[in-house]
Amino acid sequence: MSERPNPRTSALLTIDVQNDFTRSESPHAIPGTDELIPVMADLVAAYRSRGLPVIHVVRLYEPDGSNAELSRRAVLAAGARIVLPGTEGSQLREELAPGPVELDHAALLAGKLQPVGDAEWLMYKPRWGAFYETPLADHLRALDVDTVAVIGANFPNCPRTTMYEASERDFHVVAVSDAISRSYPQGMEECAGMGALILTASEFTAWLSAMEQ
Fold first, then answer.
1. Topology (CATH level 3) of domain 7-212
2. Which positions ≥6 away from 60 have C-beta within 8 Å?
């Protein structure tokens, strides 16, 4: 394992970049996320062009809320339909996809990774963090990945939890501050305090390009 984040042995994690959470017309949209989609898409394209791994981490909520966090179960059980399996709202934003992609909801809910490209997968997570009761850590290690870069929605919940979980599992962490919705300076400083490398999208692109030198 390298002593610091290494672009050559890194994977990009996109967190919850789904229609219900990102499209401005959605009643469940996270403010500020739609505007960041072009930046996120550029970073995904940069990884894809280099053949580096990309894992699109998604949420799927059953109608009764049984697979959601405790804080969300009541609203789902009362009839809210958020990233419901089989709906358009659950789908990955098309700007981030390598082509036409449909979530295999049954396989994802069963804990399987869905391949969508040569080094690109979809993966379902049942809670805030992408490592909680998922195959993510084993998958990354099988790819010889020791560094994860995190983008997506929305910082106070899922991206931040994912970064902490990654650190707990001895992965280096890179946070792209202007490709994570609802990020804020103090939060980024707190993540830096636990070892994350904080970069803007332009700095991140330069960091990634360093592997070619």
1. Rossmann fold (3.40.50)
2. 67, 83, 84, 85, 90, 103, 105, 108, 109, 124
